Amino acid sequence: NREMERKKTNLIWGSFLIVIGIIFLIGTLSSVGMEKIWPIFPLTVGLAFWVGYFYDRDNPGLLMPGSILIIISILFFYCTFSDWRRMDTLWPLFIIAPAVGFFAMYFGGTKDQGLLLPGGILLGVGIVFLLLSSWLGNYWPIFVIIAGLVLIALQGLPGKKQKKERTS
């Protein structure tokens, strides 16, 4: 059993070193320099956390840092290859990333209901800030007005009538 663990560890570290070597080789031999492909490092670490989880499904805690690093790396790749000024609207992804981690831990783990509340709160806050920092941000008062109209309209709807209790 100890020999099996050693082989598994060697496979993981060997694969990691091969990926790192390939990344540096691409940076050296191609026109795309390290200033463009540096987000591959946190992406590789994030993927390593996920691979670690798939080797040991009893440890869903690996999914949290893995999810955060993968999402942040994708954001960094996007900004590196497009425009870093987009970060002024995309920053809420830093809030959404741990939400994805909580949901990954929930679905990959023991279905602990306690993971859904922080995941849901972070996802909701992140989406709200994402919308507010986009072009919709200028029109957020419209959503407040609509919410008020909905509340007022709900007041006019008939509620459930309670059954009269018989007294004997």
Task: Give an overview in words.
The chain is an all-alpha fold. 73% of the residues lie in helices and 0% in strands. The chain contains eight helices and no strands. It has helices at residues 2-29, 34-37, 40-55, 63-81, 87-90, 93-108, 116-133, 140-156. The chain is flat. The mean pLDDT is 84.
Helix and strand layout, with pairings?
Layout: H1 2-29, H2 34-37, H3 40-55, H4 63-81, H5 87-90, H6 93-108, H7 116-133, H8 140-156
Tally of separate helices: 8
Low-confidence stretches: none
Alpha carbon gap, first and last residue: 75 Å
Q: What is the overall shape?
A: flat
Task: For this entry, give a set of tags.
168 residues, mainly alpha, 73% helix, single chain, flat
Quick synopsis:
The protein is mainly α.
